[in-house]
Amino acid sequence: MAAANPWDPASAPNGAGLVLGHFIASGMVNQEMLNMSKKTASCFVNFTRLQQITDIEAEIYQLRSVILCKA
């Protein structure tokens, strides 16, 4: 039996959706807060780019030391 997709609005409500609905109804969470939470994803994009740059720099450093040893 396949599990319901939690992101599909047509699927049956799950626990997370019910809790979020309760928070929205009570005013604890609003659309602005939800929009701000989406923006934090860019942090992970920047972290991934920084990690790629660090890996490339390490590779360049390693290649330089190999070239200098052969010279």
TrEMBL record:
Entry-linked InterPro entries: HAUS2 (IPR028346)
Gene Ontology BP term (one): microtubule organizing center organization
Pfam family, one: HAUS2
Protein name: HAUS augmin like complex subunit 2
Lineage: Eukaryota, Metazoa, Chordata, Craniata, Vertebrata
